Structure formats: structure tokens, C-alpha cells
Amino acid sequence: MPDAPAESVGSSAAAADSRPSRQHGQVSDEARADERRFGVYTAAVLAAGLVAAAAVSAWLPFEGSVHLWWIGPLLALAFLGAEQLGVNVDVRSGISWTISFTEIPLVIAFFVAPFEVVLAAHVIAGISTLLARRVSGRILYNTGAFFLEITSAFAVAGLVKQALGDPAGMPWLAALAGTLAAPLASCVLAMAAVRVLRRRMRVGTVLRLAGRILVVAFVNASVGLTGYLVISTTPEAWPIVLAVCLGLAALYWAYSDLLREQRDMEALSDVSLMVARSGQQAAARPASRADEIRRGIDVGEWATIAERIKDQLAAGRVVLRLRFEPDEAMRVVVAGEPLPADDVPADDPLLRLPGAHVRHVRVTEANPEVRAALLDRGAQEALVVPLRSANQLLGVVEAHDRLSRWRGFGKYDVQLLGTMASHLATALDNRRLLATLRHDAYHDPLTGLLNRPGFRQVARDPLRERGSCVVLRVDLDVFSTVSDALGYAWADRMVMAAGRRIRDVLGSDVPLARLEGASFAALLVDCLPDDAHPVAERLRAELSAPYPVDRLTVEANAMVGYAASGVEENSEIVDVDSLLQRADVAVRATRGGEEVRGYVPSMGQIFLRRFQMVTQFRQALEEGQLSVHYQPKIALPNKHVLGVEALVRWQHPEFGKVDPDEFVPAVEAAGLVGVLTSFVLEESLRRARRWLDEGLRISVAVNLSVRNLADAEFPAKVVAALERFGVPAELLTFELTESGVMADPQRALPILRELHSLGIVLAVDDFGTGYSSLAYLRQLPVDQVKIDKSFVLGMGTDLGDLAVVRSIVELGHSLGLTVVAEGVEEDLARDQLEAMGCDVAQGYLISRPLSEERLEAWLQARTARSVGRQSETVLTLLT
């Protein structure tokens, strides 16, 4: 029999239990509308059944030969027994098919009882079965269905009888046709109920169901008809008839077991697919770990799973109690009848049942505590199984009161629920693992903030859907310093503290990411550039406050750049990566005292130019765009030309003359400074070799980068170059900044000592502007100090600069070092330096940096040649 998406009752099509899954006893408006439609449908079925019964009763008088009073109760018991022996098969999406044996007493009833008696017996048996199974919500509908089943059966039998023209008795063919009409009427009513409840069934499914109903009804009716005819003519043959009936029942039960295994496997597959699909939906976007886990166990998604389990077990209610997090209380998902009370105490006996297997408890057999827990749930029996993973309780599944069989849950139900629970526990554990992996993929492990991919995911939709968004980029400039001085553990503490400060300023709803190192990014949604600037200022002020790390206080400085989605170039639509890049450009533009900058298109042109220079650098070397200029240095007071400083110049075909302060830092950042140093060194040594060939001993000074001092092979490269050009090591000077050496002294000092041991002169450039000149100068293996030109330029008007220059000269001489003053542009400065005892002067007063050809002309025009004590030519600057 079709069960019209709910409980089946023998040959009747019990109405669909249209109540959807409920959470905390809430019923949706859609469910209420379904109930109203089904109420109208119930009234129509009941009215049609009563009218049809009255019509058939007046049309078909009983013409049989049996008029015993006990035939009515006997038929009722027969119908009742046939209902209880029913076999449920092929449950599919809430539609179940019940093989019952009601056709056997029905086909016999055509010969032994009048229509009214058969109708009453069938209705009484059906309603009694419904009440015994606690199906109280569909009594009126099922009553109307019972009336229409028996009425249609007798109406078809009467029509066939008239067609056969047999006025006496009931022909067996008419009884068989009438018996087949009853389940078909039940099927039609059930399909109509499905449509009323707006549940879908495919046409193929309906046809297959009707075909099975006709086949089973025909077999049952044939067995009942044959048995009646045989016994009526040969009473002693009843054992054979009984054996046939028992064999048929055994075949049904065997078929039922096979189909049950099949539908149990389908149910397990359905549940697994539901969990997998909900997991894919949960992966929509990155969020916090708690949010990930909650989406991984979404209540709405699991309500559908609970409904599927309820249909498969034919239970009155299924309750899923799921624990989202270890310290959180279980949340309740209910399918079927709502719970009388959602909250259960922590020591609830059903939740404390021992073991990891399914426990089957009944009110009639349980101890007082379990009995009270069942009654609190409004249940007479329950299957309870915990969901565990690695001794961790993930949840509990409860199934209450089986409806499809009078005897309650059986061993197959216990096995099925246990297997489902195992699958659900594994699925829950996998979902938690996937949520953790997803969180780790989109979040920074140190701060718990989003990482770059996570920020890109979160920002994509707001940038696409909102009008104006601003991306903030925040950089702390002390991260590497703290890492080198105190170690990465201390630097990590600063980063975590900075992340907390940013979160406090922006709030918990603003997407915030740690990009790398001490760089952060935030997305301000529905924010204009003018509104972003005060936020950036507030961030910078908060992040620049001292950081108390354990017992230390670390000073810090922050730079903030921001870019708005409305600031577009060439009407291009900007994406997350473009805004991050522009905000990074704005941060780089904060150098020079302005710590907060907003992106403007001109910044993009500047950094595009730098990018082009970096990418074209090697080509520029090959094409001869780079050249070396030389600035002379003279001795004080005799004005001998001692050497030159080699300075690189770039004549770009598109940009023209490019300042070294522009392209050298870009080349250095791109990791090409080694190529640049090698080029300058080669050109300088080639020039020094030509001077040697002319009898001149003029030294060349080459500037070194901090990256050169990190190259362990650099001294060997220098030795090879000196040998290749045949230049003595003492004619080569390397100038390096104090800050460059102290950026990584553990790697720089061994390189410097090796260069110094070769006889190469080492000079500290820009002296007085580094970390701590007095503290580190004695540790460096240097021969010269160069006074920074900012002090030399100002000493004519600033007594403080004059005092600094005098102190450096005295300090250098006390340490046995040669003192070089750069930036000498006036005669007064030269005279003051000479009076102080400064050794060497360099600056525009003497000469600007000159190309190789102009330097030759300068030497010939402004110097006098003389033979020194070692028969070497000495150049002296002409006054």
C-alpha cells in the first residue's frame, strides 16, 4: 500500500505527516498553509466516502447465504490481523509501500457478508490500528479513505457482476475485480494527498508503485479467493490452503528483508551526501574558527538530515543533539513531533547511557530515571546512540516511537541507526577537521587574523557589491630591528600586540589581515577617502605608542597608506590585489616624515617608473646606458690629488638622466646590487690601471651595499678583479655606511676583516648619522672616516655642526684614522677643515663628479705634475 508520505495503515493510504522538521518547537508559515490545505482535502475525502457508502448501500443488496451474527466481529479481527502482519518495503523520500494481507479477508467478505458489515469491520479495524500506533492527527482523513476503499471495491464488483449477467450470488471474477479496486483507490487518494501537501513524485515512481500494488493485490486476492473456493467445496483441504498462505507470507518477508537492506543503504548514502553537500556550502568564505565550525554543523542543514532519518525509521520523532564546540551546550534539532521541552538537564539519564552503541529503551522496561526521561519527552520508547570521535562526545541521536509497526523498533532499526550514527560521527569529525584546515588556510597562525588569501576572499564581495571601499595598509618599521636585537619571539609578541591595537581601533566587524612580517591590511566598507584619513591617523597614533614587552618598552613607528576603490585610473575596475598594491605604494610614499598617505594616481606612475627601471637594468648595462663618473679628492693642506670616488650614472633613453638616489635603492631591493657593484668595480679598476700605466697612483673608491657584505664570495670576486687588472689593493677603497654594517654585523664583520687583510682601504661613509658612532667605530676594521656632508655644509653658519666636525676630526685622529670631509663647497669650509687638521677634502669646490673624458681634461687643466720621492708622478691642484 502507498503510505502517502507518512504512516501506512494496512490497505489504507494514511495521510502524509506533513509537519516539517522543527527547531525548538517552531512551525513555519508554510507548514501551517499545508495543514490548512490538507484539512480541506480531509473534509472532501470524508464527505465523498459517506456519500459513496450511502449510494452503494442502496444499490447493492446482499444476496449471500451466510447470515450469522458473528461474521462482523470475525471480519474485523481478520482485517485487524492482516494490518498487523503488513510488511513495509521500498521507503523512498517519505513514500513507503506496505504489503498487507487485507485483500484476503476482503475477497472472502464478498461471499459471506453484506456491504455494511464489511465496511464497518474495515473501518473499526483501521481506526483501532491508528489509535494503537498513536496516529491521532489523521483519523478523519483515514476514516474517509476507509469508506472510499470499501465503497469502490463493492461498486466495481457490482458493475462486473451486472456485466456478467449473473443475478445469483457473487461471481468470483466480480469479487476479484472489486478486491483489486480497493488498493487502487487507496493509491489515488495517497497521490492526491501528496499533491495537496506540495510534495513531488515523479510519474515513473507513481506508475511503478501502482504496478506493484496491483501485482501484490492480485496475488493476495487470488490466494484468498482460491482458498475460499477450495474450502467451500472441500473443507478438509484447509491445511493446504493454510500452507500456501504461510508460504506466501514467508516470501513477502524475505522480499521485505532484501528491499529493507537496499533502502537502508540508500538512506545511508543520502545522509552522507547531505552532509557532504552542506559541507561544500559551508566553505563559502573564510571566517573565525568558531564560525567555521558552526557553519560546518549548520542547524538548518541538519534538520533535513534528521527528517531523512525519521522517515527511514518510520519514527514519530528524531532528535539530534549536536555540540558545536567542546565547552558549549548541545543544540537541539527536531524532526517530527515537537519536544514538550527542549532543555534537558546535564545529567539526563538518556544522555548518560553507557557505551557507544545504540540503546533501545521502553517505558515498560526501563528503570525509574530512564522512564521519567522518556515521559518528559512524551515518548514510550526510544533508540539512543551517542556520536563520538576519539573519546569526544560530538552529539546524541534519539529516535522516538516507531509508527509503522505495532511492535515498535526492531533489530533492523537498531542496526540501521547504529550505522547511521557511525557515519554521522565520522562526517562530523571530518567537517570539524575541514573547518580547521579551511581556517588555517585563510588565517595567520600567529595572530589569528586573516592572511592574504583570506583577506582576498573576504574583500571580493564587498568590493563588487558596495559603492566605495577603502583598503588600509599598515607597516611597523621596527620588526626586523626587534627580530635582530631580541629574537623572533619578541618580534612576534609585538606583532600580536599591534594586531590587537588595530582590532581595538577598527572594531570586530572590520576585515583585518596580517600580510607578512609587521604589515597589516584592513577593509573599510562604505567608506570615502576623506573619512579614511582620520581612521588612518588614529591607527598610526595608536600603533606608534611604546610597546611594553615583558619588562622592556620598545619604541615603534607606524606608516599607514590607504587606497579607495573610487580612485581609478583609465576607468579601470580595481580588485582586491590592485587596492592592496596601491595601498602599499601609498605606504612607500610616506617616507620623509609624513606617516599617513592616501593613494593618488601619480604615485602609481612613480612606482611604475621604478619597476620599469628594475626590469630594464640588465639591458641598460648591456647597451652601455650606465657609466661611471669620478669625483676627485685632495689632501689638505698640500692639495695633492689622492683619489676619486666612483659614482654610477644612468642615461635612460626614455627618462633621461636618472638620479642614483632613485634607481640604486630600486636595484638594491630587486637583488641586482651585486651586478651593479661588479660593473662599477670593473670600470674603476680599468681607470686605475690606465693611470698606473701613465705613472699616476690615484686610488678609486667604490660604494658597497649591505647586500655585498652578506655575500661570502665577495672577497674572492674582488681579489680576482684586482689580479685581472693588476691594480694594487691599496689603490682600492670601499666605502660603506655605518648603518649598513650594523644591519647584520655577524655577517658583515668577517667580510670586512677579510677585505682589510688584503690591503684594501675601508672607509665609513656618512659618519655621524649611524647607530652609535663612538661605540662601533673601534670595532670596525676601517682606515678612514668620511664626515657626512650635512655637517660640513652647515658648519659655516651653525656652531653645533662646526663642533660636530671638529669632534669627528679629533676622534678619527685619536684612533689613527684618515678623516675625509665631503660636501666642501666654499673656501671658508676648506680653510676651517684645514685649520682643524682634516686630512682629505671632497666636494663641488674641488670638482663635481665628472665623466672619464672630462676628468682627464680637468686633471690636465687644473693640476700640476711633479715627481715624488719614489719617482712617481704626483698631481697637485692649482690654486
TrEMBL record:
The keyword Repressor does not apply. CDD domains: EAL (cd01948), GGDEF (cd01949). Residues 1-31 are annotated as: Disordered. Keywords: Membrane, Transmembrane, Transmembrane helix. Residues 610-863 form the EAL domain. InterPro entries: Cyclic-di-GMP_PDE-like (IPR050706), EAL_dom (IPR001633), EAL_sf (IPR035919), GAF (IPR003018), GAF-like_dom_sf (IPR029016), GGDEF_dom (IPR000160), Nucleotide_cyclase (IPR029787), Rev_trsase/Diguanyl_cyclase (IPR043128). GO terms for molecular function: cyclic-guanylate-specific phosphodiesterase activity. Residues 467-601 form the GGDEF domain. It comes from the Bacteria. The chain crosses the membrane at residues 38-60, 67-87, 107-132, 139-160, 172-197, 209-231, 237-255. The keyword Membrane applies. PROSITE patterns: EAL, GGDEF. Gene3D superfamilies: 3.30.450.40, 3.30.70.270, EAL domain. NCBIfam families: GGDEF (TIGR00254). This is Diguanylate cyclase (GGDEF)-like protein. It comes from Prauserella shujinwangii.
